């Protein structure tokens, strides 16, 4: 159980695709100007990730090694196009907001990377767990970035939905957060925070190990 | 992976791989076809609703729209009429909806409606790529101009015949003059095309006047400039002889250099004007050259630009008559300060001020040259004039 659990939580923080592996950044910075977009992109991405990992894991023995990349791309592109068609039909506002980043899911490193590194070597159950973990890991980071950018940059919450609330008056908003440089700033701060937490943890673990060694030596 | 590099792949294996790939592609295609079958009608309905909603927003009364293509194209090379629809109520033409794109600070695509009486029924932006916080306020639903409406909302109800002049017939966005004026120009062209089509083919009110005049700028040679300046100047008859005069092209005057000088004579051979060209730095390092013609009364007859390396749409506007004509009839001995003595080009105050400084230096030198040939001498104390000083005298 713990092994499966680890597969699942791997993507949330320890191997978070955005904060730790630093892959798939373009779309995550491009669309995170409000939380609705962030959630939409996260869920769209998760759907493609789960379906691609599922099918590729299922078919991993039937896919010849020498043409596995084109086959992966075909499968990923098929699911991306499905997401695109469904969004265009039923959530056109989100489809417009995500723009070019939606079709670009096809070439998103996160999906290609997980499919190549994980799903093509592991069983169906583990692959789906990995996909859910990675998808959630991607989505929560998008939500955090888009929350910061929307709240401080746009002064609103839930923009893009019918329940939009204006909180900060326009004069006090940090306009730069709405544009691309703001995305980089927020993401850089998050990366720095994650890095420092990780280093603090490592230092603690090392100190504990050292202490244990010294105790043993003292004995 | 490594084994496939060493082994030669047989033709059969290659075909097999291709077939496998094809099978995956076919299966994916079939899947997409099924999904598309469900979503296509919904998407199409969405798009029609969206397009109609856009047109309805600027022509609320119409119940259907018919696209036509036989309208007269824009006479301004920078503005294009993208789409032209006739707005109908119960099959009867009640007006037109026009989509047009043109330059603002960057550029804008607008859609607007005009009814048969020549009244704007509404205007909206389809795209506006100006600066956030400045030009984009024009498309901000929460931003209100002086009259209390949104910038784009204020156009509804305006008469096409009144024209679109920022600050007069409509309110500009403060801090975004270029955007506001640019939109006005696109409006002028689009409403002209719409109302002339309606007048011609659908019984709309006749449009007064010609197509909006597009002001074209041009650069002159020294000689052409002198001729052009005098072509509109009726005071002297038969200005025909221009005599080149050597000028000191080596000594800097406020970091500018004289380039050429000439005396303009009338048919009796009397010297009536002097022309001097000067080059100096402007917004660009390459700078520019202008020529000024001055008469005996120490008045500027005219100014023209010979060379200018500044940005298109901003500094380059200086080569248009609306800019250079403001220096005509001014006294050589006055100051040329942006905003008080002449109107600087919006978005190009450095270019404008530098050119004004060149005008000052050139006209003063030309007046000196004229003084040697019977013109008025410089009044006392006018020799140590000051300039706008963007780059000079640092």
Walk me through this protein's architecture.
The complex is a heterodimer of chains A (219) and B (394). Chain A is built from 8 helices and 2 strands, in the order H-H-H-H-H-H-H-E-E-H. Chain A has 219 residues and is mainly α. Chain A has one domain (2-218). Chain A has a two-stranded antiparallel ribbon with strand order 1-2. The radius of gyration of chain A is 20 Å and the shape is flat. The relative contact order of chain A is 0.16. By secondary structure, chain B is α+β, with helices and mostly antiparallel strands. Chain B has 3 domains: 2-56; 64-201; 222-371, no CATH class. Chain B contains 6 helices and 10 strands; from the N terminus they run H-H-E-E-E-E-E-H-H-E-E-E-E-E-H-H. Chain B has helices spanning 2-6, 11-58, 177-201, 222-231, 321-324, 349-371, and strands spanning 64-67, 80-89, 92-103, 107-115, 120-128, 241-245, 257-265, 271-280, 288-295, 300-308. A 5-stranded antiparallel β-sheet of chain B has the order 1-2-3-4-5, with helices on both faces. In chain B, strands 6-7-8-9-10 form a 5-stranded antiparallel β-sheet. The N and C termini of chain B lie far apart (69 Å). The mean pLDDT of chain B is 84. Chain A binds chain B through residues 63-67, 70-71, 74-75, 77-78, 81-82, 85-86, 88-90, 92, 170, 175, 178-179, and chain B through 1, 4, 17, 20-21, 24-25, 28, 31-32, 35-36, 38-39, 42-43, 46, 50, 132-133, 142.
